[in-house]
Design goal:
By secondary structure, this protein is mainly alpha-helical. 32% of the residues are buried. The N and C termini lie far apart (56 Å). Strands 1-2 form a two-stranded antiparallel ribbon.
């Protein structure tokens, strides 16, 4: 019996080793760059060929979070732009998503596909031409111009997710409210929108994160008058200031992780199943 169990254990050994190596490689791919960011964020002196920083400290953290520093100003600029972008996207996506989910539409698939067109082309030539148009309109270097560019990207996520959220709402509940004498607007405000709220919240979070991390459009339309956090990260990296770049990257990582946990909590499987249908 012991010999049989021993042979089975030997037979499973290659498979166990394969799984362990795969998990290890995945963990290294995820946590390796994060570990490097953490090392650089606390490194006050780190020169080649040292394997680890020669001097540790919080000097660069103090510089980043200094009230008069560029980092905090860039953070507030990024958050303000992201919040305005979320409001603009939801103002357009909620009625559009409801119409796509509830109204009979002959070319619905083509309309949904049209929202993907901004993502179908390379960003660089698109934003170069957008910057030229915005310059002639006086929108270059303004928050309004950056918000318009971010809205163009965020609207894709907002419309697709909100339409799926409204599509997951039980029509019988809306019909029951209409039979009780509620107007279409009242049905929407008291039945449809509250039931679709988790999906709408998820779309708002996705748009916020998309706007917070957006670099290319902000660079061509906003720079140098507006400096967002991704632009600050780019400038720090290009200038060889890896401490500032690492701390900025970690700041951008925090809301992404927190909001993804919120999305996982509120975005139901039936809503996800309807995305794109």
């Amino acid at each position: 019996m012991n010999a049989l169990s021993g042979s089975r254990g030997l037979a499973r050994l290659p498979r166990t080793l394969g799984v362990a190596l795969a998990v290890g490689a995945l963990a290294f791919a995820i946590f390796g760059p994060l570990s490097n960011l953490l090392l650089w964020s606390f490194a006050e002196q780190w020169y080649f060929p040292q394997k680890l920083p020669g001097q540790w400290g919080f000097k660069w953290w103090e510089r980043v979070f200094r009230p008069t520093g560029d980092a905090m100003e860039s953070l507030w600029t990024s958050v303000t732009i992201a919040l305005v972008t979320v409001g603009t996207c939801l103002a357009l996506a909620i009625p559009a998503g409801y119409a796509l989910a509830r109204r009979p539409m002959r070319w619905r698939a083509l309309v949904m596909l049209a929202f993907l067109l901004p993502q179908a082309f390379p960003n660089l030539p698109v934003y170069i031409n957008v910057a030229q148009v915005f310059y002639s309109l006086g929108l270059n270097g303004t928050m309004a111009g950056v918000v318009l560019v971010h809205t163009l990207h965020g609207l894709v996520l907002a419309v697709w997710i909100t339409s799926a959220a409204f599509g997951a709402v039980d029509r019988d509940l809306e019909l029951a409210a209409r039979n009780l004498g509620a107007s279409p607007l009242r049905v929407f405000m008291t039945v449809s929108l509250p039931l679709a709220a988790p999906g709408v919240l998820a779309s708002a979070i996705f748009v916020f994160l998309e706007s917070l991390d957006e670099f290319t459009g902000s660079f061509f339309v906003g720079a140098p008058d507006l400096t967002t956090l991704p632009l600050l990260l780019f400038n720090a990296s290009a200038g060889g200031n890896y401490q500032i770049a690492s701390i900025t990257a970690l700041i951008l990582l925090v809301p992404s992780v927190l909001f993804m946990l919120v999305v996982e909590r509120f975005l139901r499987a039936d809503v996800l199943a309807r995305v794109g249908t």
